[in-house]
């Protein structure tokens, strides 16, 4: 603005002797990277010194009145909000292959083997969907993130804010609790945004459960890997190290040579060296869901190398691998609580067809007939 | 509190007078009990805690060690453990997994896609038992045609048809991996062996046989492991090895309460876990007993 004005004035050449200097950063100006609005301080500074036991009881009572009584819901300590949350009437739209569905927030609770019907043993990781609720849907025309996620045609997609694990709101800041006010949902410990197509929008206040995915589907699981700290080359990259004896001194776990000489007389970019290991976001892609338990909201997912530690938080998405994407319509936009019973029947467990249920008889192989 | 504890431990001891099974417990071992307590022990198999009788037998943690989860705190999760136990019980309704220990002689019949007739039976002595939950497994060893054979089975593998205990007994050590370095007769079992009947109420006998090792080289440094069931470790080791074994001893570890605590499931939690599965396990046990009675009665056949 100022600059154009000065240039215009210069063009007039009212006083050609005066030289005005314009000092600015020019190319260095770039849009400010603003965080999303839900990135506010979560924890409140606890000043409990003046709070009496009566005060505490009163706070508990208020929470109970506002959000419902504490209850254990699907194996997770939470609050029973079913009577208080009323979601708006919602009309389902048909699924199509380009639709992006919402994901889930889960905890990795451990791993144990399952067996297939052909006798093969598979290692599985158990992911428990922890008390997920939809907090807010932001339609495409409103969703203009400053830090653009790597999604093609972002302007066509909206954003769904999902929270997991209800917490006592008296431990949180006012601003953070305010995020949940419109949905009527208890403030949640964890928030995640999922980029979805507008057809897959879910009304705020809807609880999400593990039946959002079907047994046999493929998912991508995103988590933060275990933090190992600054590690040497043997642990970080699996280098062999050098012998323990036979005249080796002081170089037992060192990398050795890190570059050549002559033309290439330098350390090449990307050379494996010591450094920080772990504590990175990683996505394990294309994992099959072998089994689902709707009573505890648990899914059994292929493999034992899901990023993160046991009891750590992970995010589950529909896979992006083209050959493993949904071929038939998944629950769209999700499976609502009312539909759960029809889905499972009496046993809570849904097994993928290839997996041997422990309630089945022992596996036998039929002799070949010639 | 002290007194009840003592009564409890002694009664537990009565029920299970073996000591070298992996126990996953913080309880003092039987031989560490002072003698004066042993005198007051009463034959009370159920044990009484705080005046109330506990229905769950005290020896469940030895009979069903795999129901206790891995004590590593970072890996624990109550929901996972519960689901795992439910799956284990589901499997146990389909196959009778009997009580057995390291040193018992077992016969395992399992589906095998590569065997003739698609089924294979292996008889051997159980030399190792480890892991918890659905991952629980054991190793059977036998010598067949002068060749030592070992098979590792998973307890809850659904390809296993039958696990028979041919001889129920215990040995002096946690594991018998040293049988690999012993003379072959110590791990040779007749593959057509008949199951030996043991009275249900009787205690599981401890076989205190001392195994004779072959000369070195060995697979492990057996001299450093304080093995009770080996006769001749000293015969083959040099003075230097003897000295080193002495240097590597860790006699203070039995006083390391934190170490014990970290490597075991506390008694209160054990009770919770077994209270959850007890009713089903008990009904399975009753069923097994009924079947056994049926089997032991053999109808006499007419000759000629």
TrEMBL record, chain A:
Residues 241-272 are annotated as: Disordered. SUPFAM superfamilies: Translation proteins. The keyword Ribonucleoprotein applies. It comes from the Eukaryota. GO terms for cellular component: ribosome. Keywords: Ribonucleoprotein, Ribosomal protein. It holds the Pfam family Ribosomal_L3. Belongs to the universal ribosomal protein uL3 family. This is Large ribosomal subunit protein uL3m. It comes from Bactrocera dorsalis.
Automatic annotation (TrEMBL), chain B:
GO terms for molecular function: structural constituent of ribosome. InterPro entries: Ribosomal_bL19 (IPR001857), Ribosomal_bL19_sf (IPR038657), Translation_prot_SH3-like_sf (IPR008991). Keywords: Mitochondrion, Ribonucleoprotein, Ribosomal protein, Transit peptide. It is found in: Mitochondrion. Its main location: mitochondrion. GO terms for cellular component: mitochondrial large ribosomal subunit. It comes from the Eukaryota. Residues 285-304 are annotated as: Disordered. GO terms for biological process: translation. Belongs to the bacterial ribosomal protein bL19 family. This is Large ribosomal subunit protein bL19m. It comes from Bactrocera dorsalis.
């Amino acid at each position: 603005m100022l600059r154009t004005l000065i240039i215009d004035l210069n063009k007039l050449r009212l006083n050609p002797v005066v030289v005005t200097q314009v000092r600015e950063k020019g190319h260095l100006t770039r849009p400010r990277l603003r965080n999303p609005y839900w990135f506010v301080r979560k924890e409140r500074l606890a000043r409990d010194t003046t709070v009496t036991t009566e005060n505490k009881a009163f706070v508990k009572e208020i929470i109970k009145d506002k959000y419902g009584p504490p209850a254990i819901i699907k194996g997770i300590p939470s609050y029973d909000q079913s009577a208080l949350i009323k979601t708006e009437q919602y009309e389902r739209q048909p699924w199509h292959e380009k639709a992006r569905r919402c994901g889930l927030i889960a905890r990795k609770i451990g791993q144990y083997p399952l067996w297939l019907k052909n006798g093969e043993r598979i290692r599985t990781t158990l992911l428990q969907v922890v008390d997920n609720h939809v907090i807010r849907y932001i339609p495409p025309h409103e969703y203009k993130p400053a830090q653009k996620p790597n999604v093609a045609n972002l302007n066509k997609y909206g954003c769904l804010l999902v929270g997991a694990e209800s917490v006592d709101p008296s431990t949180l800041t006012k601003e953070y609790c305010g995020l949940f006010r419109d949905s009527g949902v208890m403030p949640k410990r964890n928030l995640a945004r999922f980029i979805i197509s507008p057809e897959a929008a879910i009304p705020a206040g809807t609880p999400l459960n593990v039946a959002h995915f079907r047994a046999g589907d493929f998912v991508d699981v995103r988590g933060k890997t275990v933090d190992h700290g600054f590690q040497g080359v043997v642990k970080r990259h699996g280098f062999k190290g050098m012998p323990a004896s036979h005249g080796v001194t002081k170089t037992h776990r060192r990398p050795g040579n890190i570059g050549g000489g002559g033309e290439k007389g330098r350390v090449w970019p990307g050379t494996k060296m010591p450094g920080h290991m772990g504590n990175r976001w990683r996505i394990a892609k294309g994992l099959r869901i072998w089994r689902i338990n709707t009573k505890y909201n648990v899914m059994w997912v292929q493999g034992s190398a899901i990023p993160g530690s046991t009891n750590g938080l992970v995010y589950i998405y529909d896979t992006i691998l083209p050959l493993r994407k949904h071929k038939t319509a998944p629950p769209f936009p999700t499976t609502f609580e009312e539909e759960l019973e029809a889905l499972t029947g009496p046993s809570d467990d849904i097994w993928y067809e290839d997996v041997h249920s422990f309630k089945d008889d022992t596996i036998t192989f039929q002799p070949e007939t010639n | 509190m002290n007194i009840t504890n003592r009564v409890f431990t002694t009664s537990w001891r009565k029920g299970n007078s073996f000591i070298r099974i992996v126990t996953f417990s913080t309880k003092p071992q039987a031989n560490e009990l002072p003698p004066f307590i042993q005198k007051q022990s009463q034959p009370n198999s159920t044990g009484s805690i705080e005046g109330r009788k506990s229905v769950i037998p005290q020896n469940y943690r030895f009979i069903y060690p795999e129901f206790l989860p891995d004590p590593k705190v970072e890996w624990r999760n109550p929901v996972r453990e519960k689901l795992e136990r439910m799956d284990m019980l589901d499997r146990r309704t389909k196959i009778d997994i009997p009580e057995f220990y390291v040193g018992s002689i077992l016969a395992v019949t399992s589906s095998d896609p590569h065997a003739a007739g698609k089924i294979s039976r292996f008889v051997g002595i159980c030399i190792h038992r480890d892991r918890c939950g659905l991952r629980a497994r054991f190793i059977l060893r036998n010598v067949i045609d002068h060749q030592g054979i070992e098979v590792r089975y998973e307890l809850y593998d659904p390809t296993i048809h039958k696990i028979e205990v041919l001889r129920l007994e215990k040995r002096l050590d946690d594991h018998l991996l040293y049988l690999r370095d012993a003379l072959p007769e110590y791990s040779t079992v007749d593959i057509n062996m008949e199951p030996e009947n043991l009275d249900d109420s009787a205690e599981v006998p401890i076989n205190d046989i001392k195994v004779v090792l072959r000369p070195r080289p060995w697979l492990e440094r057996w001299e450093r492991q304080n093995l009770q069931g080996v006769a001749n470790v000293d015969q083959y080791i040099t003075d230097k090895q003897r000295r080193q074994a002495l240097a590597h001893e860790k006699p203070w570890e039995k006083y390391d309460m934190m170490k014990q605590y970290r490597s075991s499931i506390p008694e209160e939690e054990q009770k919770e876990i077994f209270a959850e599965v007890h009713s089903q396990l008990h009904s399975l046990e009753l069923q097994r007993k009924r079947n056994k009675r049926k089997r032991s009665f053999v109808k006499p056949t007419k000759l000629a």
